[in-house]
Write a structure and sequence with these properties.
By secondary structure, this protein is α+β, with helices and mostly antiparallel strands. Helix content is about 45%, strand content about 15%.
Length: about 200
């Protein structure tokens, strides 16, 4: 709203202080995911060579490691023009690179979906370790989107090993092959698919 710096500075200090804590926690999580992202080659073949990166907003070339408070000051005029905060953990991103390619921006839709699925599994594995082996609940919506049948089966099998799974698809045959309890939604009601037993 065009407020003077003296009115904005206290908010920048709060964002910088709390944002630094959030960004550091996220950075550690990305490093932890790096350990596991290659664990499912049938799903994400590029995982063995993939490099994950926590990308700070507003860093720019040669500015990695710059403090949030300094980045906020540097983009203040642009923020006034756009009417929004352009720097901070709410604007940070995740990078996934394999064989010199930014998979999330340049990969095929199948590669992107496989990479994100492997990241979900890596996150589930970390949660399970932190919870003393207790398996997290994984909710997979449109589980077959952008994945071929082999990668979809690999995702479902890996998810079953990493946690408890609730998967949704418009193609029930994909789930029937897993031996899982299959619920069919019709007219807002759920029913157990014929011939299926809970395991």
């Amino acid at each position: 709203e065009g407020r003077p710096d003296r009115e904005i500075a206290p908010w920048d200090e709060v964002l910088a202080r709390t944002g630094t804590v959030v960004a550091e926690r996220r950075r550690r999580q990305v490093e932890a995911w790096q350990e596991d992202v290659g664990g499912w080659p049938e799903l994400f073949p590029e995982g063995g060579t993939a490099r994950l990166a926590y990308l700070e907003s507003g860093s720019g070339k040669g500015r990695e490691g710059e403090k949030i408070i300094d980045r906020l000051a540097r983009v203040r005029d642009r923020e006034r023009r756009y009417g929004m905060t352009l720097v901070g953990p709410h604007r940070d991103d995740l990078g996934v690179e394999a064989e010199g390619q930014d998979l999330l921006r340049q990969g095929s839709s199948g590669q992107v979906r496989a990479a994100l699925s492997a990241l979900l599994l890596a996150q589930a594995r970390q949660v399970r370790r932190q919870a003393g082996g207790q398996r997290p609940l994984l909710v997979l919506d449109d589980v077959d989107t952008d994945l071929d049948a082999a990668r979809c089966a690999a995702l479902l099998e890996a998810a079953r090993k990493e946690g408890q799974v609730l998967a949704a698809t418009s193609k029930p045959d994909l789930l029937n092959a897993t031996g899982a309890l299959v619920l069919v939604m019709e007219q807002g009601l759920a029913r157990v698919s014929e011939g299926r037993e809970a395991r």
